[in-house]
Design brief:
By secondary structure, this protein is an all-alpha fold. It is 55% helix and 3% strand. The longest helix is centred in the first third of the chain and has 22 residues.
Length: 159
């Protein structure tokens, strides 16, 4: 099955790509390490979405992407996806949220920062377990995109 964001091929098209597996099973990877990976995966998904929309200048692309990747936006995303999560996914979200980070959040409150870390932990976990279809479904829900949205057609489009 081909997975797409608009007309842009997504993660499942990387079937032949060489992935680097962690030295332990994904459920044993530290929540902060999963969040580190999840941050990159989410950022890539958001950038692909932003690029799938009508062409813009780099500064506009950055501003639009920032609407999705800030700690506050990710905390809101957690509220959108939480009712749809399995028990295993809720556990990963909780592990990430409760992880003791030694970094103080910048320009956001601690609660939003913890929720965003939980969100990123869940994304990293789903990515490492190669549950790409589930990952895409949750990311679309998190970003408030219709499941079969075409390029430039999201429910949250306010332009």
């Amino acid at each position: 099955m081909e997975t797409k964001v608009g007309r842009t091929p997504l993660i499942n098209d990387l079937a032949g790509f060489q992935f680097f597996a962690p030295p332990e099973p994904p459920h044993l990877v530290s929540p902060l390490a999963l969040a580190y990976l999840g941050d990159a995966v989410y950022d890539l998904f958001v950038r692909q979405y932003v690029l799938s929309r009508p062409s813009r200048r780099p500064n506009q692309l950055h501003r639009e992407a920032t609407r999705f990747v800030s700690a506050k936006a990710q905390a809101q995303a957690v509220r959108r996806i939480e009712p749809e999560l399995t028990d295993e996914e809720r556990d990963m979200l909780r592990r990430g949220r409760n992880a003791k980070s030694h970094a103080a959040p910048k320009n956001t409150d601690v609660l939003d920062y913890r929720h965003s870390t939980g969100f990123e932990c869940l994304i990293g976990y789903l990515y490492l377990t190669r549950r790409y279809e589930r990952l895409e479904a949750l990311l679309r829900l998190a970003m408030d995109l219709a499941p079969d949205a075409k390029a430039g057609e999201g429910r949250n489009s306010d332009e």
